Amino acid sequence: MQQQSPQPVFVGVSPFELFPTTFSPLFEFFNIAGLKFFVSPRAGAPFDFRLIIKGFWNCVTSEFTVENLLTDVGCILSSFLIQLAQGSIGGRIIQRIMPQREQYHYSMGNIVLTRDVPTPSVLATKVGTFVAVRAFFYPFKTALVRLMTKQISPRSALQLFTDPASFKSLYNGFQFHLLWSVGYGALSSLEEMFFYRKVNNLATPTVALVQYFSLFLLQLPLAPVATKIIFDQANIPFEFTWNLSLFRWIRATFSRP
């Protein structure tokens, strides 16, 4: 066990955590509006700040109808339950596979936090669990995206799981989803190793800064994959391309499809 004094840089919750532990209904509401704008043709146009703001705001205001608000409340609740279930199941699987994991401690202000020592076996277990759990919940996330983007109505959502052809469509983009999950899991593993080296004084602040900046650069190639996943989940035709609009690059880079 090691306990370090507070560090000035990059101390806190991992920006690449596999199973998020926080949830904001307000953020999720704006995420729904942003998702609607993301799949619209306007989001694929050359970047124009005023048009982006106007288009996004129109998507936000269009949610303020009784029908849309009720649908959004259901989507927000479903999104919360899926996130909660993924975290709970993922944590239980990891604990079952590796009940004894070496941990280290670090401080953030006056709070002492703990993380698992990022050994190859621990990282492989976490990433494998992450990919498997996300794969299991993929059809549910797909149905949720279609509700969020108003491609289906709440009444027709259940039919997606009862009709064989419709259920098969819930796996649209599944191969890209696996690719994204593996890529994101790899980035999470790198962050775990970089953070461990930093708080244990195995890397200078400058090296740590360069390492974290490299994580951001490595995340950029996942944006076209995430974009393809979102369109496939929404059941909107879209060819995989690296030629994305600036808005889609930014939005997809920080999304978790």
State the order of secondary-structure elements, H for helix, E for strand: HHHEEHHHHHHHH
From the alpha-carbon coordinates, what is the Rg to the nearest angstrom? 20 Å
Strand order of the largest sheet: 1-2
Shape: globular
In angstroms, what separates the terminal alpha carbons?
A: 36 Å
Multimeric state: single chain
- Output the structural class: mainly alpha
Return the average pLDDT rounded to an integer: 88
What is the tally of beta strands?
A: 2
Q: Work out the count of structural domains.
A: 1
Can you summarize this structure?
With 257 residues, this protein is mainly α. It has helices at 25-38, 49-61, 66-97, 120-148, 154-157, 159-162, 164-169, 174-199, 205-219, 222-234, 246-253; strands spanning 103-108, 111-116. It has one domain.
Structural description of this entry:
- With 257 residues, this protein is mainly α.
- It has one domain (25-253).
- It is 64% helix and 5% strand.
- It has eleven helices and two strands, in the order αααββαααααααα.
- A two-stranded antiparallel ribbon has the order 1-2.
- Helix 1 (25-38) crosses helix 2, helix 4 crosses helix 8 (174-199) and helix 8 (174-199) packs antiparallel against helix 9 (205-219).
- The two termini are 36 Å apart.
- The model is unreliable at 1-12 (pLDDT under 50).
